[in-house]
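Weekly puzzle thread! Below is a chain. First person to post its structure in token form gets bragging rights.
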Amino acid sequence: MQTKSHRRRQLSALAVCLGLIAALLLPAAVAARALSQPNQDPADYLTQTLAAFGEKPDGEYNRRNVYAYDLSPSGYEYTFTVNGEPAYALMTYFTTPNGDLYHDITEMFFNTPSPFAQAKGLPVYIDKFVYFYYFNDTYTDLTDNSVAEYSALAIAAEQSDIYGEYSDGGTSSTDIISYAYRSKDSYEFEYGLPGYYTSTHVNTCANIAGGNVLGYYDIFYPNLIPDYETIFEINGKIKYRIQDSIITSIISNDLYKYMLTAEQNGTTFENFKSGLKKYINQQGYNAEYYETVENHKLDIGAYLTEIYTGRPVVVFMSGYNMTNGPLANDEYDRLNIAYYKTNHAMAASGFMEIEYYNSNNIMFRKDSYLSVCTGNTWIKRGYMRLNDNETFNHAIGIEIY
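Winning reply:
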């Protein structure tokens, strides 16, 4: 069995090497600007983005949907010409809890046709420079026409509301923060967390948080999830596989059983620890827990020690918030945030801090966030803002060895 440090170095070197090769082969491109305004027409957003780079289309845009793993529409492919040469933009979108729709141009290339130009079926856009098409029940990689090994992972997304923690007591708010300039510092340990988010039972947020921890540590200790790899490498990037039936079974059967979730219609803190450790022990490993909360206050220094060491932290809240992070515009940030008064557990993997300054170069505000796997369907990985109506009961760093 490979050691943690050895496998980490191998994967990092592969990602860097292939990433550099890919970068050398790319056609001319520009970096996309900020997100669209809320509910802005996507074509207008694209036109404004082109204008910001001193370009404009020769004529009309051609638009078609692009799709996520589960074949749900996730964005658009725009093709057009600039100065007689082909160009394209790929755009994703999401809706915030208060109903605002945002678009995000993730790629915009000139002097080259769209990577989906040769797609024989539905264009499936996974991430930047990761392109597939779906045809005859098969996912095919457009870079080399190979059949994707995870074609079976295209499972219809769970649509039923099984998260009792989210359905009651939630309120949403929008925070506009105007500034002259801002600085941002953030950190997430290597690979982050998978973003698992669902179970076949209700009141299973602690089971889901435990599943995210297992999915991360399986990178270094492969027998945690037997005969399964939680990550894969594609186009020079290391990616987590989306949650599939194997992961859902561990969350919904093993962890649900060992954490005694059914018996108390939820999971206690002690049952989380004992149940997760029972599963880990059965796979031939051990676990230790490191508390970072005292008197319902997060010790940020202790939390960062866990994160910098590469140990996920599972937080146990009685009142919390959830956001996809500040949406930066030229002179202000827009933060869509939802507040909940119920108990909830989430797995955390990082930290973000933003300092805001006025025109006199005086810092007037500092916002800090934990990077979390929410266990929610509208955003699987997001943030919880600190000192904003949240109450910590526990936050434990988890080491598996």
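Puzzle host: Confirmed. Bonus trivia for everyone else. Residues 1-27, 29-33, 150-168 have pLDDT under 50 and may be disordered.
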